[in-house]
Amino acid sequence: MKEKFEVIEIENQAMILKVNRSGGCTGCSASGACGTGILANYFDHYSVFSKPLQAGVVIGDVVTLEISASELFWRAFQLYIVPLLALFAGSGLGLAYFPENEFWQIAFGFSGFIGSLMLTKYFIK
After folding, report:
1. Cys bridge to 87: 34, 43, 95, 113, which one at CB 3.0-4.6 A?
2. 49 with 17: CB under 8 angstroms?
3. Is the full-model pTM beyond 0.70?
4. In what order do the strands lie in the sheet with 2-11?
5. Rounded to whole angstroms, how far apart are CA atoms 69 and 3?
């Protein structure tokens, strides 16, 4: 998978890149009924992040970055499957410690889910 990014800033041997996300989520005819298309209307239509500075790159250049299929699969797994597994693991832990109290089972499940989302946000860059 390849994507083009615009260099908007260079600082401390890092280039700050911006990519426009609006093409994929609002471009098709089903975007009004699609959950991703609806959510795209409420958030910025671009992402900004940094990468190590490459030789000869200046502000305003367009660079192309590529991600392998295995890396894309691994990131999607971390983003979608790990929080669900943490939800079930937390619920199972709550069931083990509090077999007769459903409130704690639900609380442990949601804690595992929210905790995995926060860890995913922290560790996936």
Report:
1. 113
2. yes
3. no
4. 46-52, 14-20, 2-11, 62-66
5. 13
